[in-house]
Design goal:
InterPro entries: Acyl_CoA_acyltransferase, GNAT_dom, Trichothecene_AcTrans. The chain contains six helices and seven strands. The chain is of the alpha+beta class and 210 residues long.
């Protein structure tokens, strides 16, 4: 399958949001944070705006994989470049339909772990890497991620990401190393009691691994 990698147009931001929701449809964290159709509607709108913001902000970036011939979007990657240590992030106000406690606690946890792992070292932070389920395991995600790795390599900069447990092996094949674990107790899908252990891994790639 032939596809090209390029920045999206602002009009493609909605399609990126849909791919995000499809790819993460079974993710326990997403459903803990956005447990209803109303909350997911808010997330869809937020993700659409977030893609446009990534196009306009010089310290952020977004790339999409487009199928040759049809232009269909197959997947995307988003990142933020941290050239200075991260400061404390102000919490965005969320509607009551969202479970803010799981949104804010995840943001705080991952920021703390990245600070412990990276210290004052600059890095590219891959925030989202999603492939349409219809095109999974066909090289889309690896091409997108390698594009970001090449940008980081040109600056001699590391790439950091938080991996779900089922994606750890994928990232390891591309040279990422597990640096630290992170975990939260979350409710099962459809529940409100935090009975389920949710885990991710903070992983780092450095230019000599490309």
């Amino acid at each position: 399958m032939e596809f090209s990698i390029a920045p999206p147009t602002p009009s493609g931001a909605g399609e990126i949001a849909e791919i995000h929701l499809q790819a993460m449809s079974s993710n326990l964290l997403l459903h803990a944070q956005f447990p209803s159709d109303e909350a997911l509607g808010f997330l869809r709108a937020w993700l659409t705006k977030d893609s446009v913001d990534h196009l306009e902000n010089p310290s952020q970036g977004v790339l999409v994989a487009n199928k040759e011939g049809t232009g269909e979007t197959l997947g995307f990657v988003k990142w933020t470049v941290h050239r200075e240590p991260e400061g404390e992030e102000e919490h965005e106000e969320l509607p009551d339909s969202c479970r803010a406690i799981y949104v804010y606690s995840y943001v705080e946890l991952t920021a703390r772990v990245r600070k412990e792992v990276m210290g004052t070292e600059p890095y590219y932070h891959v925030t989202y890497l999603c492939t349409s389920p219809a095109y999974a395991a066909r090289g889309v995600g690896s091409r997108l991620l390698r594009s970001v790795m090449s940008l980081a390599e040109a600056e001699g900069t590391a790439v950091v990401l938080e991996s779900t447990m089922d994606a750890v092996a994928f990232y390891q094949k591309l040279g990422f190393e597990i640096m630290q674990g992170l975990d939260m107790m979350l409710p099962a899908i459809g529940s409100s009691d935090p009975t389920e252990l949710y885990e991710e891994r903070c992983m780092v790639w450095r230019p000599d691994k490309l």
